[in-house]
Amino acid sequence: MNVHALYIALYCDEDVLEGIAEALRQRGYDAVSAAEAGMLERSDAEQFEYAVRHRRAILTYNASDYVCLANAWFSAGKEHDGVIISQQFSKRQFGELLRRLLNLLDTLTREKMRNQVIALQSFK
Predict the structure, then answer these.
(1) b/e for 11-26, b at 16 or more Cβ within 10 A?
(2) DSSP code of residue 3
(3) What is the pLDDT of residue 4?
(4) Would you place residue 50 in the very low, low, confident or very high pLDDT band (cuts 50, 70, 90)?
(5) 108 contacts 8 by C-beta, under 8 angstroms
(6) What pLDDT shows up at residue 25?
């Protein structure tokens, strides 16, 4: 079995703090930002489709739109790699966002994240 298939690959929506994907990569995690993926100023649906196409869970502050997208996708019989909903963090809260993400990434497998919408709040 491919060991990388066990771990969550993360895609950070463009509103997520700049640098969070890089900080995760520095710690050995697979993460990419919307800016790094060339996806700035794309619609939420395009962001979600990018995450699905690249088998990544998406991290976003935009609960309402992404919960609807995830539900519609799943209702249509399609699978996705998960949506992580976070409260908005300021630059001075970077460390707290990173800490919660590390807790999540160290707790959940890719399989457990599949087709789920998870609140990052649960990983304080």
Answers:
(1) bbbbebbeebbebbee
(2) G
(3) 53
(4) very high
(5) yes
(6) 95
3-class secondary structure, 96: helix
| Non-local CB neighbours of 55 within 8 Å, separated by 6+ positions | 9, 81
- Cα angle: 111, vertex 114, 115; to 5 degrees: 155
Q: In the CATH scheme, what is the code of domain 3-123?
A: 3.40.50
Q: What is the mean pLDDT of residues 63-77?
A: 92
Q: In 3-state terms, what secondary structure has residue 93?
A: helix
Q: In terms of pLDDT, which residue wins out, 111 or 1?
A: 111
Got the DSSP string for 21-33?
HHHHHHTT--EEE
Per residue, the 3-state secondary structure of 45-73, as one string, reads HHHHHHHHHCCCEEEECCHHHHHHHHHHH
Estimate the crossing angle of helix 44-53 against helix 63-75, to 10 degrees.
50
Which amino acid, residue 113?
A: M
Return d(Cα 124, Cα 49) in angstroms, integer. 28
